Amino acid sequence: MKIIDTFRYARDAATGTPLRTGLLIIAMSIGVAAVVVLTALGDGARRYVVGEFSAIGSNLVIVLPGRSETRGFNPANLITSTPRDLTLDDATALLRLPGVERIAPILIATTEINASGKLREAMLLGTNSDYIRVRKQKLALGRFLTQEDLGHGAAEVVLGAAIRREIFGTTNPLGKTVRVGDRRLRVIGVLSEGGQGMGMTSDELLIVPVATAQAMLNSNTLFRILVESRSREQIGEVKARVLKMITQRHEGEEDVTVITQDAVLKTFDKILNVLTLGVAGIAAISLAVAGILVMNVMLVSVTQRTAEIGLLKALGATSASVRQLFMVEAVLLSVTGAVVGIALGYLGAAILRDIYPTFPAYPPMWAVLAGLGTALVSGLVFGVMPARHAAQLDPILALAKR
Amino acid sequence: MADSKSLIALKAIDRTFYLGDSQVYALRNVNLDINPGEYIAVMGPSGSGKSTLLNLLGLLDRPDAGTYQLEGRDVTTLAPDEQAKVRSERIGFIFQSFHLVPRLTAAANIELPLILAGMPAAERTKRVAQALKEYGLVDRAQHRPNELSGGQRQRVAIARATVQRPAVLLADEPTGNLDRVTGEEVVRLLEALNAQGMTLIVVTHDHALGARARRQIKMEDGVIVSDITHMPEQAG
Asked: With a threshold of 0.80, does the pTM exceed it?
């Protein structure tokens, strides 16, 4: 029997019972669609988080005040119980370390901006002139903070795009004076729109020199210090040096946490990949259920078509031909279900992206192939038993059935 | 009687079935020689072994003892796939309940043995068209079995059985599900095929049908009790 005829015969047999075939294809396609949509969700979450972290900048070492891990009893704890804060002097010291390209101290607070008769809440970010390069952001208008001694704070401010739009509309804000908190600051620049990172948008920032921010907040501490290493390879050394330097400056107490962006990225990547695999595994259960359904339907089909099988044998079909007919039918049903399921899955992912535009819910290629492969394999595996059953039927008994 | 010219030669065939712990002798020491072109009716009561004999001749069943030579070749020892090939090329089956595939059209039903034999599509189409013409089924080619009358169904079944031009045509109660007039038509069709040289073996309860055959074999309890050959004479 020719392969094309086998396929045609199996197809006709499947379409001969439209209801049964339709239900089976729906079951299989739901299984495959579940795999596709859930992996799209998992992989979308991974991409989202990785994208957020990459947007912070590259080759970054981040210094946070306070320890995030516990070590054994340290006599120093008896005397100095609170960790020391990060200071501007710490930041200046870090800049002198080998392998460090530039640093950006960061101080963050909420504040109000008041100008041209409008009042608005905004995030105040105190930093230095290198911030814009460390964070890889762009200016839309004017200039950024000037290079100067960290301790000296000019009365200048760079506006986020949203602030500029809402306070000034289309008029040129450069050179205008705005009131931020209790200070009057001159607008020197505007950030371009769409900067992201660390879970916040740069559109609503007011960027001022770090000393100015400290004076406004009446504080001498820092929220973070961003350290950019000269190259990716040096990140590890820079991290060690930063930690050593801060420890030295803090009288031998290791009271800061230093994280590298790389490590954070890798960790999230790993966690979210495992998560994606997990949900794919859960979805695969529905595929297995669909596979068993294929077997059940094929067994029913063999029983219902006993006379036909007997006839085929009387007409000269070999056992192998009969087996092939039923195997091909099972595989055709599974693969059709899988293809429909992949289409449904892509549709589902597209709807998700439509509802949450910032969430990149694209089904990963491996999941699509795995879904298709699993459907094919389950068709083959669960088709074997019914096909063998059909091939082993005694033609005399099969023909005697009416 | 067993000469090398005979189409079918059965020697000392036994076939036993086991029903629970009792043995049923379906065939006991059956010896039979059939020459090419014969017209044979196998008659006998239910359970006399005539259907078993037909299944055996059609290679659907294997004897427990004895040999079966078809066209001089011992077919009892053939592998299942080779037996399938012999069925495909040399044997045509006609059943009481037609056994047409309900989802396939008349033409597709006739094409089935050719598909199973792996014949190229172009040649199949030619052979099917010819068969449809020969059996007067051209305008019924695209009808499914449930749209055909009983007589038409059996004609499709006969067309299917003969499309491979087999040496032997095995018919199991071919008129059992038909009324007298259509049954008569079908029998004439089978006799016409026999007149063209095809060996025809009919299993039947119907004495009127059996009486038309030139050679009548009567069976009882798995044994051939009489084997009468009438001299060719003009049918009434």
From this structure: no
